[in-house]
């Protein structure tokens, strides 16, 4: 598809997602649910299954974080210049799990496979749709997310994605931005998407610890990640793909540090600081774009009305802050055209962040070398 027609389609998706469509809801065959498009009725049994049995009541914690990350790794198996790289948000990461989960770039995605494979297999939707749907529902667990749209009808992959399609944390920002651009995502999209690291942490970078959060509020989709990634790192981060962090127990990815300070992205990055609405809206649009990479948008159906509302942040949670003991003097500013916002410092002594607990569903037969990463029969 030509770029212009993709952009037109995206603009259309955007306007539909923002409520321009006025059609009324019809009752589903189950007699219980309703949706504007009857095709969307197929999503309700899946929604009920994952709400009850996959996310349970765990909130914006490991299950939600795990479901969000795999949607990125599935979608990035795509190139606007080289068809052999993959067909995008196509389920290939699970369908060809034994191949793709061997790739170094997918370290840790076996957790997502173990958690989601049984649900994907027993659902009546494509694996491609399942991965993006579960990620969309995961977002609604995190306070601060802007209502995520969902488009339905993805076609599953018939071959695996290539290796080296997902950026790695030890790559330069220039290389990462180039790979994202080749997949169809701009530098602004990339910064917008990295708001996901506000609800995230690392299990595999530091061999001695797991569940190390990327910001001090890993269960809130707030702007704190953009603040803390700009603070001078004083706690050493000696492992590959890691740099020093400003808070004990926090893990800083080298890639986040580089993108925060790259002249191409520094001002986009800083603009998210204490700018909750702008951050959440930019993420909403970029996540929509990412989740349909490689798919024919004109074949997708708008099922946004199936998605529950995410919780809101309180006014207190919306206000960004400097962690205890730190202030404006600890900011390593790289954006030259805007001053860093004035933020309060949280009172109290410098804290050590708690590690996040792994969700038990992430444990299963699939290994990080791809062994036994095979979808069960439907
Ligand atoms: C652009 C370059 C990116 C790089 C280099 C990168 C790298 C990483 C790395 C290394 C981890 C830790 C993995 C581990 O040790 O277990 C991680 C975690 C995570 N990433 Fe990214 N990421 C990028 C973009 C994204 C995007 C676009 C999304 C989603 C839209 C995303 C969502 C997540 C989430 C949710 C986690 C936490 C997973 C968990 O806690 O279980 N990342 N990322
Ligand atoms: C599965 O989905 C197809 C197409 O959406 C539909 O025709 C069929 O009735 C569904 N089956 C079940 C058991 O929901
Ligand atoms: C996308 O789908 C539309 C509608 O079914 C079709 O006319 C068009 O040829 C498809 N485009 C591609 C690139 O497959
Ligand atoms: C960053 O922290 C280091 C170690 O505490 C210190 O030596 C350095 O002066 C700090 N740099 C800035 C810009 O604050």
TrEMBL record:
Residues annotated as binding Ca(2+) 2: 198, 215, 217, 222
Range of residues in the leader sequence: 1-22
Record-linked Gene3D superfamilies: 1.10.520.10, Peroxidase, domain 2
Cystine pairings recorded for this chain: 28-41, 40-303, 60-142, 267-335
InterPro entries in the cross-refs: Ccp1-like, Haem_peroxidase, Haem_peroxidase_sf, Ligninase, Ligninase_C, Peroxidases_AS, Peroxidases_heam-ligand_BS
GO function terms (MF aspect): heme binding; metal ion binding; peroxidase activity
UniProt-annotated catalytic positions: 73 (proton acceptor)
Main location: secreted
PROSITE patterns linked to this entry: PEROXIDASE_1 (PS00435), PEROXIDASE_2 (PS00436), PEROXIDASE_4 (PS50873)
Binding residues annotated for Ca(2+) 1, in chain numbering: 74, 88, 90, 92
GO biological process, one term: cellular response to oxidative stress
One GO CC term, this protein: extracellular region
Pfam families named among the record's database cross-references: peroxidase, Peroxidase_ext
Compartment(s): Secreted
Name by which UniProt lists this protein: Peroxidase
